[in-house]
Amino acid sequence: MLDVQRRALLISLGIAALALAAPFVVHPVLAMQILCFGLFAAAFNLLAGYLGLISFGHAAFFGAGAYVSGYAVKAWQFPTELGILAGTATAGILGILFGHLAVRRQGVYFAMITLALSQLVYFIFHQAPFTGGEDGMAGIPRGFLFGFIPLSNNLVMYAFVLAIVAAALAVIYRTVYSPFGTVLQAIRDNEPRAISLGYDVARFKLLAFTLSATLTGLAGATKAIVFQFASQSDILWSTSGTPVLASLIGGIGTLPGPVIGAAVMVMMENLLAGLGEWVFFAQGAIFVLVVMFFRSGIYGEIVAYSEKRQQRKPTPIAGVTGTNTSIAHEKNRVGSPVG
Amino acid sequence: MSIFGVPIQALASQLLLGIVNGSFYAILSLGLSIIFGMLHIANFVHGAQYMMGAFVAWAALNYFGISYWWSLALAPLIMFVAGIVIEVVFLRRLYDLDHFYGLLMTFGLLLMIESLFRKGFGSTGMAYPNPLPGGINLGFMFMPYYRAWVVLASVILCLGTWFVIEKTKLGSYLRAATENPDLVLAFGINVPRLLTLTYGFGIALAGLAGAMAAPIQNVSPTMGSHLVIVIFAVVVIGGLGSIVGSIVAGYTLGIIEGLTKVFFAPASSTVIFLVMVLVLLTRPAGLFGQQR
Predict the structure, then answer these.
(1) What CATH architecture is A25-296?
(2) B103 in reach of chain A (CB within 8 A)
(3) A257, B27, B107, B146: which has the fewest C-beta neighbours closer than 10 Å?
(4) For residues A14 and B215, which has the higher predicted lDDT (pLDDT)?
């Protein structure tokens, strides 16, 4: 166990160093984009990886967060923090409504229902006069943090975004390792058993869904402030594929995986930006390749590799090797780290 | 003459438009439902395959001078082959995995196919000449021949498919394999081949729908991308895997959508999703589905 803890500490130190160095290595706006999409993917993964419910409608929360926070800051002159909060809350309320309908079904049905609901939200936002329709909502002011620190400075903005995303990721971490998170994973692995143990499965699912939607809204709201722009593409159905692909690339059902995957995706999009249409082609091809050959994702492969190496070493006490047998049984299920 | 303040001509022509749209919903959700029933794959590329069918018709006419009526055979044939290739190369490996990987895989294929077509043909779209110009004045409305043909053809297609699946030997194999593939395999029926053919058939239906849509819709790379989401909603409403459910829900929702255009136009793009919400609240398994 000590080994696992030491490894976790090392990893978190590494991540912290990386996060602090990022705005000096790549353009700060790119780094902020990675953070926002990382949170987007991590929020999606909370649901997909730890509850086994894969939503294809998270663009609705991302876009709603972006539009509402943008409008609150731009039209109502809300302070930036309050604007982000407004967007996040809107996404949370949407999440309760979506969740109420969607958690009635599982699996592919769940994905199709969330997709259809998000398309409903897309049309509502598209027709609403305040969103600017096709043109989107531009010129959202970044404003001042605490009323006096100018966020127009990219490094200051980066620190602010980093704080938000780190706090949100901490919430996800705490959730996964709380008794609540354990119940979620029990539902994922064997729902009838969780029901027979007396858990109100529907309520757990609804809570997890709402939390995931809220954090997705936070990511969208932050993104709108960073780019000073909210547009159709934030809420379009194809955006719902982004966190799915990011989680898959990084490793679904792992904590760092989605953020890693989002970083890979944002960097790739950035590199391929000049190729226009080919970006979508590359995304599609990666989807296909990852599903065919690489289902455990980057982080999942790293974990599998290091576990294999540990097993080769002589173990002092039997049974403390760190391999999780319940995961091995569920290897073909979405959301398990080993594929 | 008018109903609720709407002239009957306008009402009737929107109703017809709704039935025409419903015909496409029915054919597409039928294919989606059959594929899901057998392969347990929610075929996200269905809309793209419909688009490809329309492009086959368009290309056949423009490059080879093949007429619309031949395209009605050519488009489903080519798409049938394309479906088989997709099943053999991509989908076959996913049957032992969580069903969701099928959705992801087909989503990836959708992104690839659509971007290739946008690259090749732009996104503005091309016109396809109407093979049956003109129409007949029914007194209360004008009925274009082509739309009447589409409705007629789709009804025949849906009934034919229903008949094959519910009333023939081949259909009984299909239904049995849906229930218990291992047992059917043990009886000596080649279930993997059945799966391949089922996917090919579902895609052929989508391709045929695309060829039929070419003269009414702009043939464009994105013509199927919103449609597939609507079809998902239709299938959820009808009950996933239910053939009758898909057909009935397809036509009904087309009509509801058409009527919404008359009475409250801004809601016409959302009404199908709103109906889905209502159905989920009252019958979570869909109108004709069985809760499992």
Answers:
(1) Orthogonal Bundle (1.10)
(2) yes
(3) B146
(4) B215
The pLDDT tens digits for B6-21 are 777 878 888 888 999 9
- Pinpoint the alpha helices (H) of B65-168: 68-89, 100-121, 145-167
Q: Which of B118, B225, B280 sits opposite A101 (nearest CB)?
A: B280
Residue A288 to residue B108, Cβ atoms within 8 A: yes
Chain A contact for B102, CB < 8 A? yes
Q: For domain B6-122+146-282, which architecture applies?
A: Orthogonal Bundle (1.10)
Domain boundaries, chain A: 25-296
Look at A281 and B40 and tell me if their CB atoms are within 8 Å. no
Amino acid symbol at A146: F
Any CB–CB contact under 8 A between B257 and chain A?
Answer: no
Question: How confident is residue B2, by pLDDT bands cut at 50, 70 and 90?
Answer: low
Which residue ranges in chain A fall short of pLDDT 50? 317-332, 336-339
Its pTM stands at: 0.86
Which residue in chain A is spatially nearest to B123 when comparing CA positions? A277
Predicted confidence at residue A123, as pLDDT, reads: 87
Query: How far, in Å, are A141, A231, B50, B87, B263 from residue B204 at the CA level?
Result: 51, 37, 9, 13, 36
Stretch B151-177: mean pLDDT? 91
pLDDT band at residue B249 under the 50/70/90 scheme: very high
Nearest CA to A299 among A252, A243, A241? A252
Pick from A108-117, B21-30, B81-90: least confident: A108-117
Radius of gyration in angstroms for the set of CA atoms belonging to chain A, rounded to a whole number: 20
Q: For position A133, what pLDDT does the model report?
A: 72
Probe site for chain B from A191, A283, A291 (most B CB atoms < 10 A): A291
What number of C-beta contacts closer than 8 Å exist between A and B?
Answer: 124
Q: What is the pLDDT of residue A313?
A: 62
Domain boundaries, chain B: 6-122+146-282
- Residue A260 has phi, psi (to 5 degrees) of -60, -45
The complex scores an ipTM of 0.83
A138-153: burial string, b at 16+ Cβ within 10 Å, e else: eebebbebeeeeebee
User: d(Cα B128, Cα B146) in Å, to the nearest integer?
Assistant: 13
Kindly determine whether residue B115 and residue A124, on different chains, have CB atoms separated by under 8 Å. Answer: no
B112 and chain A: CB distance < 8 Å anywhere? yes
Among A237, A281, A291, whose Cβ lies nearest the Cβ of B116?
A: A281
Cβ–Cβ below 8 Å for B236 and A116: yes
